[in-house]
Here is the input.
Amino acid sequence: MVKDGSSVHVRMNSEGFLLDHTLWSRELGEWMAVREGIELTEDHWEIIGFVRDHYLRCGHFPNMRVFVKAVAGALGEEKGNSRYLHRLFPQGPLKYACKLAGLTKPPHCL
Here is the structure.
């Protein structure tokens, strides 16, 4: 990743998850999304921000069912449903939201 002409190095695991979530930035999230072939919209950023905030506040990841319910409670039923979340992150909403939020892979994601 390059910023202002100088290299910025971040360590990732073999699946592309950051090893240190404190190094995350929105710019890094955008760079990671490009690598994954995901064009981020404000809808994506809302979910990425939600999962990042949840993890930093609670210290753990919800499972997918709890994640969907938590999104519905925080952002409304139209966003807190599996169809909406899979439209944003077709390869796995929780896994890819966490990845682009700079978090480690949730333990219950394949």
